[in-house]
Amino acid sequence: MTEGWHEIDDNFFAAYTMMLSFAGSFILFEPQTGCISDLIEMDLLKQLPVDSDNPNFIKAASYLRKIDPEHPLDYDKIINDHLELFGGKGKALAPPYSSVYMSPDHIINDTVSIRVRKLYHAYGWKSQMEGKVPDDHLGIELQFINLLLSKYPELEDNVCRNEIRKDLIKFIDAYINPWINEWNRYVQENAESDFYKGIAYLTLSGIEDIYSTLSRQNGDFFLS
User: Fold this and answer.
1) Are 119 and 68 spatial neighbours (Cβ–Cβ below 8 Å)?
2) Which of 54, 80, 126, 191 could lock 196 by a disulfide, CB 3.0 to 4.6 Å apart?
3) In a 3-state reduction of DSSP, which class is residue 153?
């Protein structure tokens, strides 16, 4: 996570895969102070792996670039944000589950989680957290999106590549787009740290950029 990521700037999807992996890991797992310290010391929060004119990316960068060795960081505030926002203690203030926003009862819903799991299994993928974390957790969904994105360089057949493109669009349309803006709003309203405000905007802008790029293409955009 803390290795220099500037090496893949010339590859749009590899860069976005890295960015979503970075953001998703801090949504899924409680951050470790040592890892955040490494990010700061290596100045990686100022060297984001993409350059986008998306207003939400610009907001993400503005928050994350405030964090550097010259400004003391309250690690307790960051860890508490993770617990308060995502449900580590008590009721989550910004629950990272599709079903919470897509179900009438606004609680984690097994029906949505099972539907998402079936999609994972259809691609021969099983989350390492299956059975421990509901499959509609945003961090798990980002892993699945990254899995599909990573398949593009491996495919030479335009038909297969186009099928993955369509599946990605359908997945984001069905399980991310309906609620990601609301989730981000809850994070912005409740987060105490610039770190998690930046992570939420980074996630939102990454999904938006990937979705808009996929929607504009005809399936052969990965050919050189």
Assistant:
1) no
2) 191
3) helix
The angle that helices 110-122 and 158-175 make with each other, rounded to 10 degrees, is 170
Choose from 63-77, 145-159, 168-182 the range with maximum mean pLDDT. Answer: 168-182
pLDDT tens column, 167-176:
999 999 999 9
pLDDT in tens, 16-64: 999 999 999 999 999 888 888 888 777 777 788 888 999 999 999 999 9
**Cβ neighbours around 186 below 10 Å, total:** 18
Cα separation, 160 vs 43, in Å, equals 39
- What single string gives the DSSP state of each residue in 75-105? HHHHHHHHHHHHTSSSS-SS--BHHHHHSTT
